[in-house]
Design goal:
This protein is of the alpha/beta class and 653 residues long. Helix content is 32%, strand content 22%. Helix 4 (74-83) packs across helix 6 (141-152). Bound molecules: 5'-O-[(S)-butoxy(hydroxy)phosphoryl]adenosine (WT7). 5'-O-[(S)-butoxy(hydroxy)phosphoryl]adenosine (WT7) binds next to helix 11, strand 20, strand 24 and strand 25.
Length: 653
């Protein structure tokens, strides 16, 4: 299989973080790759099926369909199943509002609510396969509506509540959603985010939208369009108490979630039901050792895949309690998160390296004020974690007691792919390494020709076998699906990430290979950003690059050429900075804008992004070691020098 699990080396290592031989993991991983179907069938039996599958895997590259012929329901899996056990009276959701209000929902309360919400959707004529857009703050109604959609076989598409009207409209139009569910507002740093007004602006651009359901959160007056807009409370008045879960096919789409790629348009990643649930149920057991008595807090927004899998579907499928926090991490004081951990007795805490770095800056005196002894395990996700942040997290949050699971995955993979697996067997952790692929994941690192790289050599991370959490497709764009993931290394899934394995076989993630940025863990396409800036009438061309940032990992730097006769000014700079915010959302705000005479391009007209990146980061051409540079070294040098000159003189925002 070409795997070196490094167990001999690992068990001979003396360090304080040591774990334990990885024999059990190695045995399990090997078995899963030798007989993936048998392995996953065994895992799938841990869930409830109305009808078992006829066959486990239907692999017609590039499409994998899992548990074909099987029928199940995601809402049943996450709710009904628990209500039949002692868990009916145990906590499902601890919710904390930004201003300090709390709501605690038991599994039986959750059961009642998902039924009523599902009935509301039915009243409005929603049927299996219909798409429903959710544009909501972090309130319990968000997971409840997701589960209510799943209950009746409707497909939810959650839109992050920080996105702009245009971003909502793009997503709603792509899925042709009939209903948008939103709120009268959301809270952020004590301010109200006008979600309903933004929804109204978006709905003007969305002919498919028939109804808008509005949840009362702030109580502020909002415009309501007669016949189109409905308060949730008025619909709930007429709801039924029980709605039978729809026994959907294993391959029935559970949701569509948009993510950035290399094109100007976000891609609608489609996830199925059976494979997605089986995969997530298993990987949360392996990576997080999650149990029904866990109090699990993933700090992501439900609007990202992390929120879908790590807040909703995986922990609830295990009957764990989740923490849902509405507001800003450091509001009103910078120990808000540590306060929440103490208050609810969080046992598993999962966050991003950006957040860890931010809290590291505030200082360890803040977590020290709190009793964090309930914590058993810490997780990290979204971007590489630098060893310094790792150590701080380990020491000051985990009290040198809790393993850190650095989990690598993507919107497309549906669930965690590479990560330590303390739920199987603890191993020695190396700060900054995601360690090994989880069982069932056949990951490796290859060169540009697809040959496996020797240890220590950077290459492309690929997955050689389908896994149950794998995306079903890109919504309405099968060519894009094939092209994005399956054309670069035929037969293997292309992740778009650089990686390396070390002498012990550990995997290290080394950033994106493509035109996708990771800003504060958020995935943003360079083309989307550039399209937004080029829409300015004074701009001729725009190219984006990223620059290392001590907290956010990467920050956004723009190089802009102006149309003839337009001269650079600080007001123009401000307008340019504002555009990505308006078109995409605040997460896309550029940090720096440079006006330049021309952009460095290859002979075929492709922008040499690496040159821009080097200039933005203040590196020399010598650092431009790349795997696939189209331009000659001379071209790169020339472009670098011309850009360097101009950017030096136009700096100083
Ligand atoms: C990209 C996927 C799925 C979780 C949230 C992000 C980067 C993710 C790690 C990690 C290094 C990581 C990769 C990946 N990434 N986790 N542990 N170490 N890089 O989902 O928005 O789809 O982004 O995030 O570059 O391709 P996403």
């Amino acid at each position: 299989m070409g795997y070196d699990y490094g167990s001999d080396r690992v068990s001979s290592l003396p360090t304080g973080l040591r774990m334990w031989p990885s024999k059990r993991y190695a045995e399990m991983h090997l078995r899963s790759l030798q007989n993936p179907e048998g392995f996953w069938a065994e895992e799938a039996r841990k869930l409830d099926w109305y009808k078992t599958w006829d066959h486990i895997l239907d692999w017609k590259p590039p499409y994998a369909r899992w548990f074909v012929g099987g029928r199940l329901n995601a809402c049943h899996q996450c709710v009904d199943r628990h209500v039949k056990t002692w868990r009916r009276s145990k906590v499902a959701i601890y919710w904390e509002g930004e201003a300090g209000e709390t709501r605690v929902l038991s599994y039986s309360t959750l059961f009642r609510e998902v039924n009523r919400f599902a009935s509301v959707l039915k009243q409005l004529g929603v049927r299996k396969g219909d798409r429903i857009a959710l544009y909501l703050p972090m309130v319990p109604e968000l997971p409840i509506f997701m589960l209510a959609c799943a209950r009746i076989g409707a497909i939810h598409t959650v839109i992050f509540s920080g996105f702009s009207a245009q971003a909502i409209a793009d997503r709603v139009n792509d899925t042709q959603a009939r209903i948008i569910i939103t709120a009268d507002g959301g809270y952020r740093r004590g301010n109200i985010v006008a979600l309903k007004e933004i929804t109204d602006e978006a709905a003007k651009l969305c002919p498919s939208v028939e109804k808008v359901i509005v949840i009362k959160r702030t109580g502020e007056p909002v415009p309501m369009a007669a016949g189109r807009d409905w308060w949730l409370s008025s619909l709930l008045d007429k709801s039924e108490m029980l709605v039978k879960p729809e026994a959907v096919e294993s391959t029935h789409p559970l949701y569509v979630l948009y993510t950035s790629g290399t094109t100007g348009k976000p891609k609608g990643v489609v996830h199925g039901t059976g494979g997605y649930l089986v995969f997530n149920h298993s990987v949360y057991e392996w990576a997080f050792n999650i149990r029904e008595e866990s109090v699990y807090w993933c700090t992501a927004d439900v609007g990202w895949v992390t929120g879908h899998s790590s807040i909703v579907y995986a922990p609830l499928s295990h009957g764990a309690a989740i923490v849902l926090y509405e507001g800003a991490p450091d509001y009103p004081t910078v120990d808000r998160w540590w306060d929440i951990i103490e208050k609810y007795g969080v046992t598993i805490f999962y966050t991003s390296p950006t957040a860890v770095r931010m809290f590291m800056r505030y200082g360890e005196e803040w977590p020290l004020k709190h009793d964090l002894s309930s914590l058993e395990l810490l997780g990290s996700v979204g971007e590489p974690i630098n060893p310094e942040a790792w150590q701080w997290y380990y020491k000051h949050i985990g009290g040198e007691r809790c393993p850190i699971v650095d989990t690598w995955w993507q919107t497309e993979t549906g669930g965690i792919m590479l990560s330590p697996a303390p739920g199987i067997e603890p191993i020695l952790l190396k700060p900054g390494s995601v360690t090994f692929p989880l069982p069932g994941v056949d990951a490796t690192v290859v060169d540009a020709e697809g040959n496996e790289n020797p240890p220590g050599q950077r290459g492309f991370l690929i997955i050689r076998k389908p896994w149950p959490g794998m995306l079903l497709d890109i919504y309405g764009a099968p060519e894009l699906y094939r092209e994005s993931y399956w054309s670069r290394f035929p037969g293997s899934y292309y992740t778009g990430d650089f990686a390396m394995r070390d002498e012990d076989g550990y995997f290290w993630l080394l950033g994106r290979t493509d035109e996708v940025l990771k800003v504060a863990g958020h995935r943003i396409g360079t083309v989307e950003l550039e399209d937004a800036v080029v829409s300015h009438p004074a701009v001729a061309e725009a190219a984006v690059a990223s620059k290392p940032d001590a907290v956010k990992g990467e920050s956004i730097v723009f190089f802009v050429t102006l149309k003839a006769g337009v001269s650079p000014s600080s007001s123009l700079k401000k307008e340019i900075v504002e555009l990505p915010r308006r078109v995409i959302g605040a997460i896309a705000t550029p940090d720096e804008v440079y006006f330049v005479q021309s952009l460095p391009k290859t002979r075929s007209g492709k922008i040499m992004r690496r040159v821009l990146k080097a200039v933005a980061s203040g590196q020399s051409v010598g650092d431009l070691t790349t795997l696939e540079d189209e331009a000659s070294v001379e071209d790169v040098k020339k472009a670098y020098q011309s850009l360097r000159k101009v950017s030096d003189t136009s700096k100083g925002n």
